[in-house]
Amino acid sequence: MIEHPVRVHPSADRLPREEQLAWKLAAVATGTEDLDTDSAAMAVNRVIDNASVAVASLLRRPVAVARAQATAHRAAAPGASVFGSRAKVSPEWAAWANGTAVRELDFHDTYLAADYSHPGDNIPPLLAVAQHTGRSGADLLRGVIAAYELHVALVKGICLHEHRIDHVAHLSAATSGGLGAMLRLPTETVYQAIQQAVHTTTATRQSRKGEISSWKAYAPAFAGKAAIEAVDRAMRGETSPSPIYEGEDGFLAWMLNGPESEYTVVLPESGEARRAILDTYTKEHSAEYQAQAIIDLARRLREKAGPLRNVRSIVLHTSHHTHHVIGSGANDPQKYDPSASRETLDHSVPYIFAVALEDGIWHHERSYAPERARRPETVELWRKITTVEDPEWTSRYHDPDPDRRAFGGRAVITLDDGSVIEDELAVADAHPAGARPFDRSGYVGKFRTLAEGVVTESAQDAFLDTAARLAQLSADDLDGLFPAVDTEAVAAYDTRLPKGLF
């Protein structure tokens, strides 16, 4: 691996493009050739994972709206598929609809380092373009692995959150690079596309603050759509704001640490295996990743805690990110509001801990149902739960050693009689270092659970067989990566939506 320093340069420096971060990212993407066997197997897992959460979200309003917008943009053959529809649409609109379906439940993969990310968000735009351009499964795999490589490197090296910039700015760069790798575009073309994509997808984190709206699901889909459009323009010879990262009026200078910005991004050498996807992990529970271990901890504490009416207070000692983003340190009263949106509740670790402690399970729908959130005894317990930042947990969150890195916390439950119950959990059970790491069987089980009642057993089998053979699929076979569902039921739901422009 090579460490690349990245800092602001005045325009007078005329920084050579080969020394710019966007070029180095593009070179890593276009240099992705022989695929690491383990990385390819993990990419298959993530294709399965994405389909799992997409089919489970088909009758949710944001997904239905995105699908309606997409299917209004039918494409001449070949086009791209949309989850829950038989239509073939323009690839950027397929990326929009499918990206929203994948993200809606907050239930797919994650990577946490200096910043946050959901690298599986790269897959919908790559799959859409692969279908539209007649690429093979092997081409798609190359693009996915390249996109993960760029995404993980950016998330490790450049923190957006401390400047309240949304993490999809890193996603759009990674997707553009993945598309370049998949299509075997020249490095110059990919360089221009990355810069255009970053320039057009830099947004604030207000989408994840206060009363969180449906835009949380749309944001990565928008980044994927923008990346496809950026690649299209770059392929037609159009250029972009340059250097987008290092320029004196660019990303680092005005969005991040200012004119004195300096970051280090670590990228693989030419010919080095692309294995960053193996550093990422998925979710067993439908909630913000930093709540995964907290849910497992609550389930473990349930018997020890005894009758919850006897609880005086619960304090979760955890990392800076957990405390300030999904904990009481966010200072968002909405995180304690029984009428808050689902998007807000899945970013409220006090709510999540309360429900997991009461129920001993977590369900992607029932745990967020309005009647569940408004249950009086739940509200009473919920409002007794606070978080505090613990320097040790913050340090472990950022530990460079994967065996020590931790995203959980310590729960201190004080009962009315003054007695205290404590326990801690470093990583979720499904984490690679957890009690029950997800392997292929875990991904398959998650798919079958979420597809139940939506996808017939035979259609489930067909999808899983197709996904397992991803490296051998022809262009025509990629349709099989969209599990067959009851499209009539989906269409009946869609007809109840208000109309828009399209």
UniProtKB/TrEMBL annotation:
Residues 322-341 are annotated as: Disordered. InterPro entries: MmgE/PrpD_sf, MmgE/PrpD_sf_1, MmgE/PrpD_sf_2, MmgE_PrpD, MmgE_PrpD_C, MmgE_PrpD_N. It comes from the Bacteria. Pfam families: MmgE_PrpD_C, MmgE_PrpD_N. Residues 20-262 form the MmgE/PrpD N-terminal domain. Residues 285-470 form the MmgE/PrpD C-terminal domain. Belongs to the PrpD family. This is 2-methylcitrate dehydratase. It comes from Streptomyces diastaticus subsp. diastaticus.
